[in-house]
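Quarterly update from the structural biology core.
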Amino acid sequence: MRPYYEDDACTIYHGDCREILPGLPVVDHVITDPPYSERTHKGARTGSGGGELLITFAHIEFDALRSLLESIRVSRWVVMTCDLAHAAQLMICPPKSLEFIRLGVWVKPNPCPQFTGDRPGQGFEQVAILHPSGKKRWNGGGYPAVWTCNKISGRHPTEKPLELYTRFIEQFTDKGDTILDPFMGSGTTLEAAKLMGRRAIGIELEEKYCEIAVRRLAQEVLC
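Predicted structure, tokenized:
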């Protein structure tokens, strides 16, 4: 299994994560933004009344997401920005070897408006937090599972803010830890990990996003 890109901090694999994950070693953490459900993908549009679909890559349903999480060997935290339906199902039926610890929220002060105007807009996204059974430790003290930062228009249709993922890494991980992102997109998790002195492994199906991630990582240096 040959990496698409590798430096002292980060490794990128181009391909289907279901095929690549069995060959990976145990990682300390998983911090990722998996595809959402079909309903959520269909509802994300560029504007009112028949606007174009914002999300054109494949959705993922819960059984497939749960199975994928069960295939990852992780020793500590799993932190995911995720679909509301997925978060609820993870709470009810978590993957084997993982406990559902907390449902957090990412609050967006600048959310997209509800273009139809017939209902309230959505001003937050869910953050599912899981951990293997046993002792748990994080760096956030008594801080609640609420993160507030603006959404961005990035290099990927569902790109998450670097600020948000840097805070996840700061609070859930330690220097030198290895973080896996099986749905890497344009590389936000990997860039945040490199900035914070962690190692990271990313997997991405679409090569154009692998190329973007490589360019981002080439601009960063280890802390």
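Residues 45-51 have pLDDT under 50 and may be disordered.
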